[in-house]
Amino acid sequence: MKPKTAVVLFNLGGPIDGEEVKPFLSRLFSDKEIVDLPFQKILAPTIVGLRHNRVRQLYHEIGGGSPIKHWTNKQGHAMVQKLDAISPETAPHKYYISFRYANPMTDDALLQMKADGVTRAVAFTQYPQYSCTTTGGSFNELWRGLKRLNLEKNFEWSVIDRWPTHPGFIKAVAQRVREGLHSFPEEERSKAVILFSAHSLPMKIVLRGDPYPQEVSSTVHEVMDELKYCNPYISTWQSAVGPNWLGPQTVDVVKLLAKRGVKSILVVPIAFTSDHIETLSEIDIEVAKVAKDAGIANFRRAPSLNDSELFTTAMADIVASHLAAKQVHTPQYKLRCPGCTNSHCRNLVNPITNHQHERI
Predict the structure, then answer these.
(1) CATH number of the structural domain 167-301
(2) What is the pTM of this model?
(3) Fold category of 5-164+310-334 in CATH
């Protein structure tokens, strides 16, 4: 049947094999919306050349490529099945994947939507917490893609731009934390320190007013409230590239806690909805080795959401509620960062009927 509603799932993406690593890195380091470099056209290829072999080896160590497409397909399939049941008036639904730096990319999704004949589309970020570098960049590329392909009038859009405290999402994360804690020896479970680890940002982006740090904190607060503050915890940050990034870094906190005699640590990937290189390599291999060398006897990572039933139910509820409310975006979407330097940020092309999009 012709889909009545398209739900486009936006994420960074990842190379599925070694051959895709270099194109992935080239797109990433050439994008000023996520990596703003001086002399970018010169520096980006240089950085890619220096990092390519090392990053390819990291992907080799986790099985050859990123599983993010695999998990996004599973999540999307489960979501639309549930959506068709709970929102029959907007059914049938079909999900499309739009990755920023790996296939399938934005143009692929848009061309498939055109071929399928859909006209109503929901842009659904898979980053629970909003950042201009992630959701913002993905949505900006969506609007550029529509113009590139001359499809600006083909679809009526609304956007789900953030959902850091959605109750279903919080319950899904809390369930994974409980699973992680249960993997400790019984006598260590209540002693384990929980590190909620999220991808870091350059401080210059934070200082512009990017909402990501506050939204990550709101997620952490809600998860711990759901868990009734069962363990000591702290928010940490990972994947910094260079100095002057948001901290403290997860790996540094592990070392510092080890010096205080902490023996049990559970890392929770709080801003990632599926496994990829930041969980499977950075946490499971790199940080785990640091923890072992520092004397942490029990180092664990809470399982990623991946195909969690609670999570895919939450995804369906987020979309169904959005459609039922005829919401175009959250109130926050129109508010650009006070120090915004991107004139394209917070745009919305061809919003659903009778909506006037105004940016602040």
Answers:
(1) 3.40.50.1400
(2) 0.95
(3) Rossmann fold (3.40.50)
